[in-house]
Amino acid sequence: MKGRSIVLKGPHLPMEIQEHEVPDPEPGAIVLRMTMAGVCGSDLHRWRGDLATGSWPAAGVPMGHEGTGIIHALGAGVASDSLGIPLREGDRVVFSGIVPCQRCRYCLNGDQNYCPSGKGIHLRAAPGQFPYFIGTFGDYIYLSPHQPVFKAPGELADEALTPANCAFGTVMQGLLNAGLTAGQSVVFQGAGGLGLAGTGIAKTFGAHPIIAIDGQAARLQLACDFGATHTIDLHDYPTSEARIARVMEITCGDGADLVVELVGSGPLVPEGLAMLAVEGTFLEIGNYLGAKSEISTSILLRGRKMIGSMMYRPSLLPKVLEFLVRVKDTLPFHKIVSHKFPLSAATHAFHESEWSGKETSVIRSALIP
Predict the structure, then answer these.
(1) DSSP H helical segments within 65-192, as ranges?
(2) CB-based contacts of 4: which residues, under 8 Å, 6+ apart?
(3) Which end of the chain, N or C, is less packed with Cβ atoms under 10 Å?
(4) DSSP state of 139
(5) Which residues contact 228 (CB under 8 A, 6 or more apart)?
(6) CA-to-CA distance for 357 and 261, rounded, in angstroms?
(7) To which H or E segment does residue 320 belong?
(8) Going along the chain, which residue ranges are E strands?
(9) Is the dihedral of CA 122, 126, 128, 132 positive or negative?
(10) Which fold is adopted by the domain 2-152+338-368?
(11) Residue 33: how many CB atoms within 10 A of its CB?
(12) pLDDT tens-digit map of 322-350
């Protein structure tokens, strides 16, 4: 039996569909049939060429790390998920988007997201090499032995589950690291998948006010549905000074207790720091591309803090699923996936999802095998 997988051979090139024989799982492994895969912001960065370092691999790069699927085949010895819940073929699951070594000091401390040799699930091997189905953009995905996997709650739609192993987990880990508590004022620089998830989490935590900043009207409108009390449209506030002044106005001159950067833009760092209240915290999540920022360190002297957070501990995923079940009737997490495309239209999905320099109605695209 054969299946398709998506490979990108270079920036802005059409997605290449490759076919391979679906392998049998080795002991401890699982083969999933993908039901939905999300187009994450980092996928767009790779497609633009933002993530390229040196020459592009001749074989290309497997695509996709976000998504959900149902069990096609269980390897010998696999009878349950990572929590001990029984698994069988046909069960829907969510899996960790990273593959850590499980042996370094970080992994042993539970911080698998900081494993120095860890890779995104889609970067475990080159295209055309075993296990062939590496990324989520395909008919199947091969989960390596001991890859954290969790049975999905039946009451959650694929649209809510798809971003769980990337956007939801990443922003929840960051907000927990930052110590978000009830009554704090929060600014989200960016209202894409992570920003919307963060807005919903902050509302549930009891944060107030919650301010979402973005340049896409559709995202800002949905941010209000997730609990944003105020939105700042980049078209209405085109300068850093104007946005800072607006945040100060909303917070009665105090500044925000927490500012979360989710875009990956260097200039947003000094802007976000200037929005902070005394003893406020700036949380960096989006800037993994190495963009440089120039700040005045004196802004930190009054107790302001800068912290970073990347991905999430795999142990957080069950809590994400529990959270999604708890708020499924009150917060529209199923709406973050706004557009769906067949796997054969992956290139079109990326063009439609592109927001840099243009307006788009896409919140987050998903590919359906």
Answers:
(1) 105-108, 158-161, 167-178
(2) 17, 18, 19, 138, 139, 343, 369
(3) N
(4) S
(5) 188, 191, 199, 210, 211, 212, 220
(6) 19
(7) helix 317-327
(8) 2-8, 16-21, 30-38, 61-62, 66-74, 92-95, 98-99, 119-120, 140-143, 149-151, 186-189, 210-214, 230-233, 256-261, 276-284, 305-308, 339-342, 365-368
(9) negative
(10) Quinone Oxidoreductase; Chain A, domain 1 (3.90.180)
(11) 20
(12) 999 999 999 999 999 999 999 999 999 99
- Whether the full predicted model's pTM is greater than 0.85, yes or no, is yes
Amino acid in the structure at residue 66: E
Condensed to tens digits (0 to 9), the pLDDT of residues 17-38 reads 999 999 999 999 999 999 999 9
Which token pair is 104?
Answer: 């370094």
**Residue range 300-318: mean pLDDT, rounded:** 91
Q: Tell whether domain 168-308 is in CATH 3.40.50.720.
A: yes
Could you tell me the end-to-end alpha-carbon distance of the chain, in angstroms, rounded to an integer?
15
Do residues 126 and 59 make contact, with C-beta atoms less than 8 angstroms apart? yes
Name the residue type at position 137.
F
- Whether 97 and 166 have beta carbons less than 8 Å apart is answered as yes
Domain boundaries, given as residue ranges, for the chain = 2-152+338-368, 168-308
Average pLDDT over residues 145-168: 94
**Rounded distance between C-alpha atoms, residue 74 and residue 143, angstroms:** 10
CA 358 to chain centre: 22
**Number of C-beta neighbours around residue 118 at 10 A:** 19
